[in-house]
Task: structure prediction
Amino acid sequence: MKDHRNLIGRLIRRFRLQKGISQMGLAELIGVSYQQVQKYESGKSSISIERLLDIAEALDIPVSRFFPSEKELLYEEESPYGELTEEEKKLLELFRRIKDRNTKKALFRILEGIKD
Amino acid sequence: MKDHRNLIGRLIRRFRLQKGISQMGLAELIGVSYQQVQKYESGKSSISIERLLDIAEALDIPVSRFFPSEKELLYEEESPYGELTEEEKKLLELFRRIKDRNTKKALFRILEGIKD
DNA sequence: ATTTTATACAACTTTTAGTTGTATATGTCA
DNA sequence: TGACATATACAACTAAAAGTTGTATAAAAT
Result:
């Protein structure tokens, strides 16, 4: 019973973060306070069908992703980064070729320096 | 906004009737008053995720059927009897072979006479 | 340093889910 | 026939929870 709340909440949070949207951002998109979004994510407040549809639309994902089947559930739960785009896969592939620790560190220093 | 409520409500009613369950029956299965089930069906009360999962379980259908895609929606909306079992298809097939009106009427009188 | 951004949580208010009570229609069975 | 059961509908009330506002903290940005 409460499990569902927590699962849905965790998924909302995950999908939101994947899209790079803040609680405030999502809150504005669906028309509630960001504190209310916190309650959705933490499972302290239950979510109506309408709200879930609002959220799915705001995050641009099909509602069905909030109701993963057994098999899909495992995937949703265990792959915190979700599906990777081709670009991201390439990034990982290239990054994993780097053997030298210092080279990796240097890369991160560069990445951390980027502001846009 | 309210449209969703009404759609979900109509689907609950349809699925319930397809299973031959009364409002009271469903109410008991999900642990609310039958009057509350009425509100769900009429769209006067919104439904939480948990409740919808309860209902889906009680009616023994996957939740996904409450969120039909565009194409499926048309089907759900326009086929009030839902999918037919093989037995029911056969029944229809045999019934449609009957040409004589009086024979049909006689059949219905028989059916109406059955009490179990 | 201080201002902005993101998140967290407690306390309060308002909305509404859910209940109870009553009414109507249909079918059952003495 | 009429009493009895079943199925649905709707209004009025209560209890519960959705949703708000206010305050606190940490980490980035300027």
About this structure: Residues 22-24, 34-35, 38, 42, 44 of chain A lie near DNA strand C (CB under 10 Å from a C1'). Chain A has a mean pLDDT of 77.
